[in-house]
Specification:
One of its GO terms (biological process) is UDP-alpha-D-glucose metabolic process. This is UTP--glucose-1-phosphate uridylyltransferase. GO terms for molecular function: UTP:glucose-1-phosphate uridylyltransferase activity. Pfam families: NTP_transferase. By secondary structure, the chain is an alpha/beta fold. It contains eleven helices and 13 strands. It has helices at 37-47, 62-68, 72-80, 84-91, 111-117, 119-122, 142-153, 214-221, 232-241, 260-272, 278-293; strands spanning 6-10, 31-32, 35-36, 52-57, 99-104, 127-130, 134-137, 156-162, 172-179, 185-192, 203-211, 245-249, 253-256. The strands form three sheets. The protein has a five-stranded mixed beta barrel with strand order 8-11-9-10-12. The protein has a two-stranded antiparallel sheet with strand order 2-3. Strands 7-13 form a two-stranded antiparallel ribbon. Helix 3 packs antiparallel against helix 4 (84-91) and helix 5 packs across helix 9 (232-241).
């Protein structure tokens, strides 16, 4: 029975919402305190049993590869200064037994096209897709839930969460079917960014998926959809019409780090959950709020 050991990370976007910071630095390397956004997704995948990491990059994303590559000069300097813990931290960004592969997306033709670019590296295997912009935080993370569920059902699965009605037009929205005893939800369709009155539910699909390789055949045949791009949601909708997609509720907190306020929220919440910074940072926030509330 096939298991999920490969994960695709589409990281070719320009990150225009964070200009000028992203003019020379990929948005995926923007830090949450001391860790780049994309590293959270990589660690989530590895914790789920993924051992082959496939990054779909653009022409200006060499720095992403450099981050996950070995840097012997840096390691030597850290060792020479007795900074063994930092050397180990840098060395173990990608643990032993986990491999990285980089695939070029020649043109920014949409998320569906980015996933399709990974087809030669994925081959005839099931695979996960993780969007680094969606940072997940918590004891239980969605990729592990998806991989475990796939081992049982052997078809494509989406991670989903309910969203406020006013946010429905921002996401791919599920047309849900029956809820099964194992916690999965049958997916009858997926509508990309519907108007509130046209939405089949308020259950949104976020940046974690597990697919069977049959998604590639659908992506190859797709015509450009919303925004003139190859939309992954359109292929999922077709697969759902065949009864081959399920969903599972995201067990963690999600932060939209492709949005400035979502990014700031992630920094605040992760700082408050960090034993090294939590107490001092909470005191700092209380002090700043008190100053804002103090009458002039």
């Amino acid at each position: 029975m096939p298991i999920v050991t490969k994960a695709v990370f589409p990281v070719a976007g320009f990150g225009t919402r964070f200009l000028p910071a992203t003019k020379a630095m990929p948005k995926e390397l923007l830090p949450i305190i001391d860790k780049p956004i994309v590293q959270f997704a990589v660690e989530e995948a590895i914790a789920a049993g993924i051992i082959e990491l496939i990054f779909v990059t653009g022409r200006n994303k060499r720095a992403v590869g450099d981050h996950f590559d070995t840097n012997l000069e840096l390691e030597s300097q850290l060792m020479a200064k007795g900074k063994t813990e930092l050397r180990d931290l840098v060395r173990n960004i990608v643990p032993e037994g986990v491999s990285c592969m980089f695939v070029r997306q020649p043109e920014p033709l949409g998320l569906g096209h980015a996933v399709l670019c990974a087809a030669p590296a994925v081959g005839d295997n099931p695979f996960a897709v993780l969007l680094a912009d969606d940072l997940m935080h918590g004891v239980n993370l969605p990729t592990k839930s998806l991989v475990d569920a796939f081992a049982t059902v052997q078809h494509s699965i989406l991670s989903v969460s309910e969203v406020p009605l006013q946010e429905v037009p921002k996401y791919g929205i599920l047309k849900p079917g029956a809820r099964e005893a194992n916690g999965l939800i049958a997916v009858q369709g997926l509508v990309e960014k519907p108007e509130i009155q046209d939405a089949p539910s308020n259950m949104a699909s976020f940046g974690r998926y597990v697919f069977t390789p049959e998604i590639f055949a659908l992506l190859r045949k797709l015509k450009p959809g919303a925004g003139g791009e190859i939309q992954l949601a359109d292929a999922i909708d077709q697969l759902a019409a065949q009864g081959k997609v399920a969903a599972i509720v995201n067990p963690s907190s999600r932060y939209d780090c492709g949005d400035k306020f979502g990014y700031l929220t992630a920094i605040v919440d992760l700082a408050l959950s960090n034993p090294e910074y939590a107490e001092r940072f909470a005191a700092l926030l209380r002090d700043r709020i008190a100053k804002l509330e103090k009458p002039a």
